[in-house]
Structures are given as structure tokens and as C-alpha cells.
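Deviation from plan, reported transparently: uridine-5'-diphosphate-xylopyranose complex.
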Amino acid sequence: MRIRMVGSGYVGLVSGACFADFGHDVVCIDKDQSKIDALLDGRMPIYEPGLDELVGRNVAAGRLRFSTDLSESVRDADAIFIAVGTPSRRGDGHADLSYVYAAAKEIAGAITGFTVIVDKSTVPVGTGDEVERIIREASPDADFAVVSNPEFLREGAAIDDFKRPDRVVVGGDDERAMEVMRQIYRPLTLNRSLVIEMSRRAAELTKYAGNAFLATKITFINEIADLCEKVGADVQDVARGIGLDNRIGSKFLHAGPGYGGSCFPKDTLALLKTAQDHDAPQRIVEAVVNVNDNRKRAMGRKVIAAMGGDVRGKTVAILGLTFKPNTDDMRDSPAIAVIQTLQDAGATVRAFDPEGTEQAKKVLDNVEYCAGPYEAIEGSDAVAIVTEWDAFRALDLARVKSLLSAPIMVDMRNIYPRDMIEKAGFTYHAVGR
Ligand code: UDX
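Because the crystal trials were delayed, the predicted structure below was used instead.
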């Protein structure tokens, strides 16, 4: 199949490279010349484990190419995936669809023969209808069908998630288009992954409902963690205790500083807007959004409390800045609110992150960025683990203790056993334990 990816960001680039690895002929397109230049040069614009090797292998095999020229590239395509960004619109939280619609307009003038237009970007219900209308209006004679095919991959595990998904969702009602989609995903069905077909609107909503549900699950266990702290229970026991019930499932029950990232915060807000527009309020998701927003600063206050209630003139070492490990993504990372809360209270922050420092510098001022965990800890009055990078799981505790002015550890990801840290002479503050 000749597949063209419009937008070479996280989703577009990973999906494009994986499709090429399945043997399809793929061109990843982006307006950003510097991004395409970097890719042509073998440099990845994002940090994602295994991506450079995957891209390199498929470029060498001639199955994966890059271009800034949309019109030229999409001619003769079997399927054109729209995988451009849909950020929150400033002001009202609605998903900003201007990039999607602009792509649709450009595609309209360039397609030849029957072409499937695939909405891969996370877009509100009804966007497929609008994309169809835009293309029809711009090119009344074009032979095309629009389908929705939301992407569920996680950053940091993107390639594996794409290649071994729990399910693939395809929404549309044009039989020719659905057959093209079946062929595109055939390598996955051979792998026994489930490709489920539904209406376009159901597929669009599935993506938002899925992310909102996962955000709810995390937020639920986070509040249970707060209760655990008050009643003297361990949230990890409770999570295991409920997670083994198949109806609940054990994933996404790790208590922590609140969810962040490029999807959950944005998609929950967009779902609330859609719900408002259709007079079907989503009160549970509303509560989730509020609880999660408050939690991030509360985690900063947790550090302050651990340090005796007053951090003026004190220094805190922050380990981990990205919203989760194995990414350099800082979008809506809890570390931002934690650090700002500490700074507002008069603390100095020294921080280390294995991959996120460059991105962090763009959103956090007045942080002393250090070259390693021990450099950040040296001379600090407490250490807080905010992101669970593997590099922080086996710290030399004796060394940490000797470098800190006071042996205080706040472990927001529960990566250490309490007795181990206490035996090493620290006061240990975890989440929900
Ligand atoms: C998420 C969805 O998982 C994915 O299906 C969708 O396509 C995009 O959004 P991603 O944002 O990459 O993926 O990260 P994910 O691993 O889901 O984590 C999101 C946030 O939740 C992180 O901040 C993470 O630390 C937090 N989280 C996750 C928890 O606090 N506890 C958990 O148990 C799981």
C-alpha cells in the first residue's frame, strides 16, 4: 500500500516508520523544513527508544521517505493519514483543528484516483464529517472516503504499542475504504491483534473515552492513596488487591503526582467541551480534571511539609522532570507545578533529568540544571523523585545521604521500599504508603 503521513510528529513519524516496517511504501510529510532535513540526515526530532534504528532500516530499504512537498507526495496514494497536531485552543480548551482542516484543504487539490483519507490525529466527534465536507467543497469530483483511525500508542513505548496493540479501531462506512484499511493493518491481524470496525463517530469518541477512562483510573487511585496515608494503609497493596479483579485490571493503578503529558490533560478537556456542546455533561471527567490539577501543586506542598513546613532559603534536589520516563516530553509534566510551588515558597531548585533538560529549560525558569542525580543532590536539603526513570531506582543511598544536608527523601513514584530507605537513615515520604 502507498501510505502518506501528513505530519511527522510523534504519531505520524512512529506510525509511518512502523507501516514501512510492515512493508508498505511510506512518505512522511511535514511543513517544518528543519524537521525533514534532520530526518533526511538520520537525526530524530524526538526522543523515542528504538526509533532511529527503525527509521534507518526502512530508509535504507527504500520503503520510507521524507518530504515537505505535500501535493507532490500524496499523488497516487492509497491512503493519506492526517497526523498533525490538535493542541488545546487557547482560551476555551476546545481542540484546535486548524492544522487538520488546512491539511484536508491541501490534500483535496492533490489526490488522484480513489484515496482513503484517514484521521489519525485525536479529533473531536464530527471532525471526519467536516474533513469530508472540506475536501468535497474544494474538489467536487475527487474520489475519496474519510475514515477515523485513532492512535493509542504511548510515548516511550511507541513502537511496541504500535506493533502489538490491544486493538486497532477503524471507523467508517465506505466498503472500499474499509478494505484498504484492512490491507494496511493485515500484518497486525496476522499477529492476532484485533482490528475492530465501527462508525466514524464511534471511533472518534472511542479515543477520548479511552483516555478519559485511563485518566479517571489514575485519579481514582491517587485519591485512594491520599486516604491510605490518613488511615495507615499502603496504596500499593490496595492497588494489587483491586487490580487482580479482571473487571478492574492492574494497569494504570500506580499512585503518583498526577497525570501529565501531551494527551490526557488535553483530551479530557476537549471531551468536556464536546460534552458541553451536546448537553451531555461528563461530571466524572470534570471532577477528574479538577482533582488532577490540584494534585500537582499539592505534591509541591508535600515536599514543603516533609522539610518542616518552611523552605525559604533551602534547596531541593528534583530527580526527573519529564511527565514520565523514556521521553523528553515536558508537556503538562507534574514537575512543573511541583517546582513552581517550591519556588513560590522561597526554595531553590536543583534538578536532573536524563533526557528532558532541554525541553525543561523552555518552561521552567531559575532552575539549576545538573549533570547527574548526585550533582543535583549535592548540598541540597532534601531530594524529591518526581519521574521514575530507571536511573533513579538504584541510587547509592550512602552517597545520597552524605551529599544531602538533611536526609529527607520524597518519592512521588513509590519506587523504593520504605524499610530500605529508612534503614539507610532517611526520613521517607512516599505517596499513599
Ligand atoms: C497516553 C495513553 O496511554 C495513550 O493510549 C494515548 O494514545 C496517549 O496518551 P502517554 O501520554 O504517552 O499515553 O503516557 P501514559 O503512559 O499513558 O502516562 C500518562 C500519564 O499518566 C503520565 O504522567 C504517567 O506518569 C501517569 N500515570 C500513568 C500515572 O500516574 N499512574 C499510572 O498508573 C499510569
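The pocket of uridine-5'-diphosphate-xylopyranose is lined by residues 151-155, 211, 214, 218, 252-254, 256, 259-264, 323-324 (CB under 6 Å). We consider this an acceptable substitute for the interim report.
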